[in-house]
Amino acid sequence: MSSTSRRLFWLKALFHLIGLIPIVYLVLKVLSDNAGGDPVQYIIHFTGTGALNALAATLLISPIAKKFKLGILLQTRRLVGLYVFSYASLHVFAFFSLDLLFAWSLFFEEVLKRPYILVGATAYILLSALAITSFKSVRRTMGKRWQRLHNSIYLIAVLVPVHFYWSVKSEIIEPSLYLIFFTALLGIRLNKIKSWTPTVLKYFSAFSSKGRGKSDP
What is the pTM of this model? Predict the structure, then answer.
């Protein structure tokens, strides 16, 4: 194993440790009956915040790697991105199993009463698409479409903090700080986002045109 491979191995091992320790902590808190007065909401909030933190870490990798010329760090983006999906999946599962008790009919009622759930669901669908297509073989198959799809991480970075902000009832300091932080993360990518936006608008325009064409007599 080369020195670069060894460094990458230990770097990924460190990131795995950082990603798994909070889950162990959560399990211990729940098992020891120290998850607050409402354990269900504690679990949902904890896993949601974990997804937010992992998403922030994913978006920080590129600017840090470029700033300090740490090319090896770029090879960890997929790993950290999968932790975003993992925490988000735990968050969604906790909501459906512990809050809704798998009553799917209640989900649509909740969406009507609490629109932030729809925002979160949209972000999770996009995250799922990124996770499924994160493998190298899929990337080669998709070609240029892969990058266009994975640029939706910027949209996710908007939807997730908004979902968090709308979900709170009174304490808005924490979600506000996340909104500011993610705005800054997106701000340093402004040129890249601007170049991506016309592509998205072009696809929406093409889709709309096809829809109108089908409906014409």
Answer: 0.86
